[in-house]
Design brief:
single chain; alpha/beta; six-stranded mixed beta sheet; three-stranded parallel beta sheet; globular
């Protein structure tokens, strides 16, 4: 017996939440199409798009197919459909944020200094409202993440409280942080002018504040020699507590090597025949 889904409508909704775009015909990665009991989907990690044929809610067959000719190819026994975006969004959370997004654009409409600007922002506001009301996720919704997730987080928030934080070349880290803030400011100004985002969004999180929140007095700020990255060193467990996580923020001219603290698995679909 093959894998089952709750319903076709629920499956389509979840594909949208995973970042896939619905099209009439699948041509590029990140797209899916629905034709009766057949769902064509092009996962980002697959060489060819996939054709899932359902019998009611049960997967009857899985085949790869050629995107150009649309002809089916090899039979596949099992497949895992990974998200097509690094920010999967649940509709419930998006709908709750609709009022906040509307209010942000409403302020820009009232602040518009010309009829053209007012119409521009108003049209974008109405388009986003219409998409959200129809259960669709707007393509620019990632700009409004602070409306969906008010609490700001960074990589350091996923690290244990007793972790060691090592920063290579702190002065350069501060310089780069300021540079990124300036670039983000220019980017924000441009997108406000085009109406792609509302002016009330902050968008940028101060990296220096994030570090200061995590830094403890025993943290050491040091500059590592360029060649240090090419040297493997062993730490005696009697001298170092190996049960602590360690985060290395490297910004050296030499090679930087890092390993993830742990392997994480995203939401995904796994089908088998």
């Amino acid at each position: 017996m093959g894998s089952e889904i709750e319903s076709m409508d629920a499956f389509v909704e979840q594909l949208v939440e995973l970042g896939y775009r619905r099209e009439n015909m699948v041509a590029t990665p990140g797209e899916f199409a629905l034709r009766g009991s057949i769902v064509d989907i092009y996962p980002l990690d697959q060489e060819y798009p996939l054709r899932l044929d359902f019998f009611d809610t049960e997967v009857d067959s899985i085949r790869a197919f050629n995107a150009e000719t649309q002809r089916s190819m090899d039979v596949i026994n099992e497949v895992r459909i990974l998200p097509a975006t690094d920010l999967p969004l649940q509709k419930e959370a998006v709908w709750k944020a609709q009022a906040k997004i509307h209010a942000l654009y409403e302020k820009d409409v009232k602040a518009a200094q010309s009829p053209e600007r007012k119409d521009q922002v108003s049209n974008i506001q109405q388009a986003i409202d219409a998409q959200l009301e129809n259960g669709e996720i707007p393509s620019n919704l990632t700009y409004f993440l602070e409306c969906i997730y008010p609490e700001k987080t960074s990589l350091l928030d996923y690290v244990s409280k007793d972790a060691y934080l090592i920063i290579d070349d702190y002065a350069r880290f501060i310089e780069k942080s300021k540079s990124l803030e300036e670039e983000a400011g220019y980017w924000k100004t441009h997108h406000i002018e085009t109406g792609a985002i509302a002016s009330g969004l902050s968008l940028v999180q101060d990296g220096r504040k994030s570090v200061k929140k995590k830094v403890r007095y025993e943290n050491v700020f040091s500059h590592f020699p360029k060649r240090a990255w090419k040297t493997r060193a062993r730490c005696d467990s009697s001298d170092y507590d190996t049960h602590h996580d360690a985060v290395l923020l490297a910004n050296a001219d030499g090679e930087s090597r890092s390993r993830p603290l742990e392997e994480t698995r995203r939401n995904s679909y796994r089908f088998s025949r």
